[in-house]
Design goal:
Layout: H1 2-18, H2 42-45, H3 49-67, H4 70-73, H5 79-98, H6 104-121
Helix pairs in contact: 3-5, 3-6, 5-6
Protein name: DUF1311 domain-containing protein
Signal peptide: 1-23
Keywords: Signal
Length: 122
């Protein structure tokens, strides 16, 4: 019993000693440039709400088509993952747009994730 307790304490101490302090979340941790292919989002810059809705729906439809395609579901490339993320982000952006609210965060994510999907498809 004492041996298993010492082993548990030793393991916990080793894990804590090797920790960088960022744990599972990324708050205040290192960040990557996940939207390097996007730059400034064209969706956010679109002034006309009708044009903006049409473009978000177009990106969402393309993402849904890739996410439902067995070609990309079974592919080794991460296009399916980005398509899944894009369809959610674009869907949320569109939901906000239906109430005439422009959620810049979801508009940026929609375009970013769609562009990443397209990048991995080529």
């Amino acid at each position: 019993m004492k041996r298993s307790t010492r082993l548990l304490v030793s393991t916990a101490a080793l894990l804590l000693a090797g920790s960088t302090g960022f744990a599972a979340d990324i708050i205040d941790g290192p960040t990557g440039d996940y939207c390097r292919v996007v730059g400034t989002s064209n969706l956010v810059l679109t002034e006309n709400i009708v044009d903006l809705k049409a473009e978000v729906v177009k990106l969402m439809d393309e993402s849904v088509a890739v996410a439902n395609s067995s070609e990309w579901i079974h592919s080794a490339r991460p296009a399916f993952v980005w398509a899944s993320e894009a369809k959610v982000a674009c869907g949320k952006a569109y939901g906000y747009l239906k109430t005439n609210y422009r959620d810049e965060d979801y508009l940026n994510k929609c375009e970013c994730f769609h562009d990443r999907m397209v990048e991995y498809m080529n």
